[in-house]
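INTERNAL AUDIT FORM
Audit reference: QA-55
Scope: verify that the stored structure record matches its stored sequence.
Auditor: D.O.
Record contents follow.
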Amino acid sequence: MKKKRLEDLGMEEFEFNQEDVERIESITREFKDKSDDEIFMEIINLNEQMEKDLSYEEYEAIFEQIESIRHLLTEEQEAKLDRLLEQLGRK
């Protein structure tokens, strides 16, 4: 699979600060050796916690952001997202 650059996606203005980069690197290391099923379970658990901790508006905004990047996903990634959203009762 060919990797897409931000410029190819019309996102040249998007910038990461050092804290963002460190957070992404940390998450990458944490999930590097996990299977899709293990990652799905982590996300389901995180979703339950977010439902408790966030306001309705904040919680819904997360799913709006997820939907806003759907056009950037490969078919395989989109199928995984659909599976996950279905598990979360969002589809």
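Auditor finding: record pair retrieved intact. Helices lie at 18-31, 36-53, 56-68, 75-87.
Action required: none
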